From TrEMBL:
Its EC number is 1.1.1.30. It comes from Pseudoalteromonas xiamenensis. This is 3-hydroxybutyrate dehydrogenase. The keyword Oxidoreductase applies. Keywords: Oxidoreductase.
């Protein structure tokens, strides 16, 4: 049974992946800054007859990563899913918010991967899947820190893929367009304020307008890509960006 560590696993995309992977007989570790919610998610999975545990994980406390990896034992698959957002024009963007977004979605993500890679090398197996964003490929106004971090994530993933190429380890990034999660729901309200328009106008004119298919991405679409990438026969797919964007970037 392969063990999966999911960051930001207590809500949204991460929570959905935890439930779906557990049902496929993976041993799931649900980690989240909200420890109580992580434990609750794990308990819900266990109640269905599957294997899971919930732990608190502060993505800003990289010093805890190495002890954590020892406590958890061998981690076969890491899904770097934790994310935060702050929407504001760069002229007014608070430095602490900028630094926090870079830390959670790039710097600390790299350090967590660093902590797990030695064991993956030792066992000659590992899958690291980064949950990126359409904003790793394109930009939107008022999201400077988020866009910068997600663009950096693609470069980091490619470097990690090269550095692990001699092992059965792969590093890939899934980049969906807008997924209807609590994080995106908050963005709708924030963007409405910044743009001076209604929330429905934000959905229609900003979020879905660039997509030829005009639809939010479903969490099951992301799960399908994860399921594909963790498979043994995906061993030569590494350093790649899997884009789920309804045709946004082909224009």
């Amino acid at each position: 049974m392969k063990k999966v560590l999911i960051t930001g696993g207590a809500s949204g995309i991460g929570q959905h992946l935890a439930h779906r992977l557990a049902a496929l007989d993976f041993d799931v570790v649900v980690s989240d800054v909200n420890e109580a919610q992580a434990i609750q998610t794990a308990q819900e999975i266990v109640a269905k007859g599957f294997k899971a545990q919930g732990i608190g994980l502060n993505m800003l406390d990289s010093a805890s990563f190495e002890p954590l990896t020892h406590a958890l034992g061998s981690i076969d698959i890491l899904i770097n899913n934790a994310g935060i957002q702050h929407v504001e024009a760069l002229e007014h963007y608070p430095l602490d918010k900028w630094e926090m977004l870079q830390a959670v979605m790039l710097t600390v993500l790299a350090m967590l991967s660093k902590a797990l890679l030695p064991q993956m090398r030792k066992q000659n197996f590992g899958r690291i899947i980064n949950i990126g964003s359409i904003h790793a490929l394109v930009a939107s106004k008022y999201k400077s820190a988020y866009v910068a971090a997600k663009h950096g994530l693609l470069g980091l993933s490619k470097v990690m893929a090269l550095e692990t190429a001699e092992f059965d380890i792969t590093i890939n990034t899934i980049c969906p367009a807008y997924v209807k999660t609590p994080l995106v729901e908050k963005q709708i309200a924030a963007q409405a304020k910044e743009h001076g328009m209604s929330e429905q106008e934000v959905v229609d004119r900003i979020m879905l307008a660039p997509m030829p298919k005009k639809a939010f991405i479903d969490v099951d679409e992301i799960f399908h890509s994860v399921q594909f990438l963790v498979a043994p026969l995906a061993k030569n797919i590494t350093g790649q960006t899997i884009v789920i964007d309804g045709g946004w970037t082909v224009q």
